[in-house]
Amino acid sequence: MATFVLKVNAHPAFTPFPNTPLEWENRQFFGPASRSVIGGPEQVPMPAVNDRVHVWINERGGGGGYTGYGKVVHYAGQTLGKIKRPTYEFRLAKIRILPAPLKGDCFWEYGGEAISSIRRYTLRQLLWINTIQAREFEAALREIVRRNFGEPLTCH
């Protein structure tokens, strides 16, 4: 199972912060080709069924931040958009959302290349994080969620 972080910009066709997980269940998510957070020599996979995708709404423009995650239940592959850049479509299920988005500054005290890269860039992108980076990122998430909302986040 691979782990990804989808950074998206809010737009009318996308519910920026769902009131319930059902607002995101099995909806189309679009993203560019996945890339590594550190640009290393590793082969970067594309999302596959059962992979975990964390959703982070870009904060520029007033709002957003880390919002929740789900499991890929359908991967439709590549399509070409109007500007001829590949876009990849997938659908998520088993969505978990937070009571409110976590802003990037919640992650300032946590190190690691993955967290720094994810927090820093507001481009629409799909970032693949390797197993070690995923453990660090999800450990930070659990601590931040517990501290902010008093409940654990279980990334299963």
Topology:
Blueprint: E1 3-8, E2 28-31, E3 34-36, E4 52-57, E5 65-80, E6 86-102, H1 113-120, E7 125-129, H2 131-149
Parallel strand pairs: 1-4, 3-7
Antiparallel strand pairs: 1-7, 2-6, 4-5, 5-6
Report on this model:
With 156 residues, the protein is of the alpha/beta class. Helices cover 17% and strands 37% of the residues. The chain contains two helices and seven strands; from the N terminus they run ββββββαβα. It has a seven-stranded mixed β-sheet. β4 (52-57) and β5 form a beta hairpin. The mean pLDDT is 80.
Beta-strand residue fraction: 35-45%
Number of strands: 7
- The arrangement of helices and strands along the chain is EEEEEEHEH
Principal-axes shape call: globular
Separation of the first and last Cα atoms: 11 Å
Low-confidence stretches: none
Count of runs of 4 or more consecutive helical residues: 2
Biggest beta sheet summary: 7 strands, mixed
Helicity range: 10-25%
Report the radius of gyration as a whole number of Å.
15 Å
Overall structural class, as computed from helix and strand content, comes to: alpha/beta
Give the spatial strand order of the biggest sheet: 2-6-5-4-1-7-3
The whole-number mean of residue pLDDT values reads 80
